[in-house]
């Protein structure tokens, strides 16, 4: 019991360090920039998604902004909320198009009825 608790603690600390330092994963530079949803989200206005090179991000919809952290791993963009939520985003066309799976579960593809497509409007300067 004690050994498994120590192992869990070590894995947890390593995971937090990787997220905090950005040391685990691929380069963010290809995807850093500003994106806008291609269709209105939930039928009510577009979503603006900003991915900063430093791993910070924001999701803005109807004047409300959600702050996120992000990293790139396994060819996907992983967006994390402060509360522990996760969005897995699949880039295509060299990062010009992003497909965000909003189901909260991992899928090999993005379910069409729960997928938000984003188009890059500006690369990070």
How are the elements arranged and paired?
Blueprint: H1 2-21, E1 33-37, E2 47-51, E3 56-61, E4 64-73, E5 76-81, E6 86-92, E7 97-101, E8 115-123
Antiparallel strand pairs: 1-2, 1-8, 2-3, 3-4, 4-5, 5-6, 6-7, 7-8
Molecular structure report:
It is a single chain. The protein has a single domain, classed as Lipocalin. 16% of the residues lie in helices and 42% in strands. The chain has one helix at 2-21; strands at residues 33-37, 47-51, 56-61, 64-73, 76-81, 86-92, 97-101, 115-123. Strands 1-2-3-4-5-6-7-8 form an 8-stranded antiparallel β-barrel. The chain starts with a helix and ends with a strand. Mean pLDDT is 81; it is low at 5-12 and 14-23.
Give a quick set of tags describing it.
8-stranded antiparallel barrel, 1 helix, alpha+beta, 8 strands, 42% strand, globular, single chain, 125 residues, Lipocalin
Task: Characterize the main sheet.
Answer: 8 strands, antiparallel, barrel
Categorize the overall geometry: globular
CATH topology: Lipocalin
- The CATH C-level name is Mainly Beta
Helix run count: 1
Terminal CA distance reads 51 Å
Number of strands: 8
Alpha-carbon Rg, integer:
16 Å
| Contiguous uncertain segments of 5+ residues | 5-12, 14-23
Beta strand %: 35-45%
Major β-sheet strand ordering: 1-2-3-4-5-6-7-8
Second rung of CATH, namely the architecture = Beta Barrel
What number is the mean pLDDT? 81
């Amino acid at each position: 019991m004690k050994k498994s608790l120590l192992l869990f603690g070590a894995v947890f600390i390593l995971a937090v360090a990787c997220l905090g330092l950005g040391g685990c994963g691929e380069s963010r530079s290809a995807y850093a920039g500003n994106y806008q949803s291609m269709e209105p989200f939930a039928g009510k206005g577009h979503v603006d998604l900003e991915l900063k090179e430093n791993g910070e991000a924001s999701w803005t919809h109807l004047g409300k902004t959600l702050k996120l952290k992000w990293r790139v791993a396994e060819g996907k963009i992983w967006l994390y909320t402060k509360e522990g939520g996760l969005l897995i985003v699949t880039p295509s066309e060299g990062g010009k198009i992003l497909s965000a799976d909003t189901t909260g579960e991992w899928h090999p593809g993005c379910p069409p009825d729960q997928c938000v497509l984003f188009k890059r409007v500006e690369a990070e300067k």
